[in-house]
């Protein structure tokens, strides 16, 4: 375990240096604070967007859309390519900001920036591949086709735990698709947002794209609510808790806007008797304890065959006891801080409820480094054995708690797996092909992400990302998720010189 932490002054200096290299003037404002979960202390004061700022952003991005939508898509891709180059140049500075503000360990922070670079590469390719289809017409001398057009202004509302990558998934794809973007990041991660915004500004200057293809609005949920309610925002892409989605979804629907919701998960892995346990243990520990349990795809439930449960639990608890917890900048640390002491309170509350509902804590749960950093929240990841899927197990607690259940038949495991309100990510560990295929089939996992012999977290950008049920149904990032950022039109062209109505209708 790391016993020393950097001082807040060191962290402030590190953030300031990174911001200055990127070209951001270090902020100073009265409304809210940038803080670091590493010490739990305040870094800089910031100004929140006013109603006038929001109005100006809406007007400017709407105006920019009117030219951006007609800019050839491969030229739009040049802006995204330049953004990707700048992200590469500032990878280390950006990763520093992710660690300072979100508390991610160094390799995960670098991984988050790599994900941003990867989605830029993907979106540049996409800018030459916004394909529509030609469809067989039932009428002679007719051509039936589908075309895809830019949608408008996209409002991106993002969560603290992927403070930069979620923005880039949305923004790189939206820009390639011909949309303009307004970003309302989490109030917990304003500094990395200022850095990303500045780099996109620089990219726009470098390729002569309109500056107003993008605007950043800092602030709390009230700023996000304005985007949710404004009919000039064609698509609200909102990432965060199911609570947030429950508010945002109906409000956007009430004005017939489009929403793309990426909400909470309660992800599970099934471990079958034939599983390679070495592989399973490594995967489970990363998925459950990595990022201090603060990924939407974090493994929260383990459904283990009864015959191997004791062996697997013993190996997992041994691994948990050795997890290095502490300073996320220390290369040996694997578990950094929780985002806040409020998150720690939520975790302790869930553990109290789990015990009251019959759960037994098998490893972890103690707070660490409370003397060194009383305002921070370092905690040992926890394993809790439960006999059934009680209320607390069926909820997402955004902290490193892994509930372990046992099963006898695969049907029973799949039923337990699907019996939660969320449907984001899932895994099975097995060397039995029939079991693997059943898990991936229509009768298997009901999640948007279904894996075999790999954990629930750590998706690649090439696939579409998102989940079902209370996870919101949205898909972002790769595959054909771009279609959510465009509108399609069906074109019928009659080149026959005669009128032939569909379905053989005759008229006149
Ligand atoms: P949160 O819901 O507290 O906040 C997310 C964002 O929504 C913030 O920018 C916040 O200001 C804004 N917001 C909240 N209420 C709003 C409202 N009524 N109208 C408009 N904006 C509103 O989430 P968080 O604590 O920052 O992040 C953790 C949660 O995000 C977890 O539940 C996690 O599973 C989820 N998450 C999901 C995904 C995914 O892709 N499915 C990815 C990352 C995080």
TrEMBL record:
Active site: 262
Assigned keywords, A-Z: NAD, Oxidoreductase
Alphabetized SUPFAM superfamilies for the sequence: ALDH-like
This enzyme's EC code(s): 1.2.1.3
UniProt entry tagged with the keyword Oxidoreductase: yes
Span of domain Aldehyde dehydrogenase: 31-488
The keyword NAD belongs to this UniProt entry's keyword annotation: yes
Top-level EC class as recorded in UniProt: oxidoreductase
SUBUNIT field: Homotetramer.
Family: Belongs to the aldehyde dehydrogenase family.
Full protein name: aldehyde dehydrogenase (NAD(+))
């Amino acid at each position: 375990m790391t016993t020393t932490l950097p001082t807040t002054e060191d962290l402030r200096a590190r953030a300031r240096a990174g911001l200055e290299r990127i070209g951001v003037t270090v902020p100073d404002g009265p409304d809210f604070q940038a803080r670091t979960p590493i010490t739990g202390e305040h870094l800089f004061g910031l100004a929140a967007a006013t109603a006038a700022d929001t109005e100006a952003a809406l007007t400017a991005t709407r105006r920019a859309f009117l030219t951006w939508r007609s800019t050839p898509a491969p030229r739009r891709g040049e802006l995204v390519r330049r953004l990707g180059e700048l992200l590469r140049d500032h990878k280390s500075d950006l990763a520093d900001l992710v660690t300072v503000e979100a508390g991610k360990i160094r390799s995960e922070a670098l991984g988050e920036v790599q994900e941003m670079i990867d989605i830029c590469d993907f979106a540049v390719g996409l800018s030459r591949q916004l394909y529509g289809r030609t469809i067989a017409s039932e009428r002679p001398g007719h051509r039936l086709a589908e075309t895809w057009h830019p949608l408008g202004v996209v409002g991106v509302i993002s969560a603290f735990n992927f403070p930069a990558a979620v923005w880039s998934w949305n923004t790189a794809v939206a820009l390639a698709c011909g949309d303009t973007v307004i970003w309302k990041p989490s109030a917990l991660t304003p500094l990395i947002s200022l850095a990303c915004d500045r780099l996109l500004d620089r990219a726009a200057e470098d390729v002569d794209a309109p500056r107003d293809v993008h605007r950043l609005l800092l602030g709390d949920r009230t700023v996000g609510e304005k985007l949710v309610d404004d009919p000039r925002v064609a698509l609200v892409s909102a990432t965060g808790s199911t609570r947030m989605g429950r508010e945002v979804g109906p409000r956007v629907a009430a004005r017939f806007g489009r929403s793309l919701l990426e909400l909470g998960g309660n992800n599970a892995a099934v471990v079958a008797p034939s599983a390679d346990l070495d592989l399973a243990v490594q995967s489970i520990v990363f998925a459950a304890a990595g990022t201090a349990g603060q990924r939407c795809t974090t493994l929260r439930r383990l459904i283990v065959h009864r015959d191997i449960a004791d062996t697997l639990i013993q190996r997992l608890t041994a691994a948990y006891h050795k997890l290095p917890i502490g300073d996320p900048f220390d290369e040996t640390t694997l578990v950094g801080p929780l985002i806040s002491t409020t998150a720690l309170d939520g975790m302790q509350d869930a553990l109290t409820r789990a015990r009251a509902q019959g759960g037994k804590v098998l490893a972890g749960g103690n707070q660490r480094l409370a003397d060194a950093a009383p305002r921070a929240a370092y905690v040992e990841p926890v394993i809790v054995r439960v006999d059934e899927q009680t209320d607390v197990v069926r909820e997402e607690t955004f902290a490193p708690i892994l509930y372990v259940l046992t099963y006898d038949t695969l049907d029973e495991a799949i039923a337990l797996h699907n019996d939660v309100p969320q449907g984001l990510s899932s895994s099975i560990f097995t060397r039995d092909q029939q079991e693997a295929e059943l898990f991936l089939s229509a009768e298997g996992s009901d999640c948007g992400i279904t894996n075999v012999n790999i954990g629930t977290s750590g998706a690649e950008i090439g696939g579409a990302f998102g989940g079902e049920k209370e996870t919101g149904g949205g898909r972002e990032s790769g595959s054909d998720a771009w279609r959510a950022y465009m509108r399609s039109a069906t074109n019928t062209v009659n080149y026959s010189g005669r009128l032939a109505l569909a379905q053989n209708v005759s008229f006149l």
